[in-house]
Amino acid sequence: MAEATRRPEAGAAPAWEAAGVAAPEAAWDELASVVREQVSRQRWEHIQGVVQTARELARRFRQPEQPAALAALLHDVARDWPAQRLQQAVREAGWAVDPLERAIPELLHGPAAAAWASAAGWCRTGEVLQAIRYHTTGRPQAGPLEMVLMVADFLEPGREHEAARRLRAAQAQGGEPAATLRGLWQRVLEERLRWLVDSGLPIHPRTVAALNWVRWRH
C-alpha cells in the first residue's frame, strides 16, 4: 500500500468540511483517491458500501449527511496497515494503546485512521474523528454520528453474514429495532458481542461498556 499523503493545507480543515456541506466533487475525488491507495481492492469495495449506507442512514435519521459520508470514507483507511504502523500512528496522536490492542493490533485501525486523517489535514471535525476512532468497539456516550458509522459498517451491502441480513430486513420493514438509530446501534453491539463469544475471541471492555450504557440509559 502507498504511504499516507499529506495535504499541502494540512494546518486547517477544508472549508467544505468546516461548513458541514457536501464536498466539492474534485475535493471528494482527491480524498477518495488517497484512501484507495492505502487499502486493498476488497477493502475499497467495502468502504464504498459503507459510504452509501451511511448516507442512507443519515437521511433516514435526520443526521448531517456530509459528515457521515466523510467518516465512512475514512474509517478503514488504516485497516491494511501493519501492526507497527498502527501503533506508531496512535502513539503519535498521544493516545494510549491498551493491553488488548497490543495483543490484537487490528483493533487500532480506527484510532490510527482518525489520527492519520487529522495529521494529514483531511479532517479536523471532532465528531467525525470520534466516529472513525471508535467504529470498531463503540463506546459509552456515543453520539449519533458514531452510531451511524458503526451501523453502516455492519449493514453495508457487502456484508453477507446472517446477522447483517436480518438487520437489513428489519430496517426495510421499519419495525424494531430499526425504528430508531439507537435501537439499531444497540442491536449491532449485541450481534458483535455474540459473534465474539461464539468465535472464542476476546471482547474489548469498551464494547461491553457501550452496550451497558445504551441498554440502561434513561
SSE order and pairing:
Elements: H1 15-19, H2 25-38, H3 41-60, H4 65-74, H5 83-92, H6 99-103, H7 109-119, H8 126-133, H9 144-155, H10 162-173, H11 181-199, H12 205-216
Helix pairs in contact: 3-4, 3-9, 4-8, 4-9, 5-7, 7-8, 8-9, 9-11, 11-12
Low-confidence stretches: 4-13, 18-22
Outline the biggest β-sheet: none
What value does the Rg take, in angstroms? 17 Å
Which structural class do you get from the secondary structure elements?
Answer: mainly alpha
Report on this structure.
With 218 residues, the chain is an all-alpha fold. It contains 12 helices and no strands. Helix 3 (41-60) runs antiparallel to helix 4, helix 4 (65-74) crosses helix 9 and helix 8 packs across helix 9. The longest helix is centred in the first third of the chain and has 20 residues, at 41-60. The protein is globular, with a radius of gyration of 17 Å.
What's a concise summary of this model?
It is built from 12 helices and no strands. The protein is mainly alpha-helical and 218 residues long.
Core attributes:
0% strand; 12 helices; mainly alpha; 218 residues
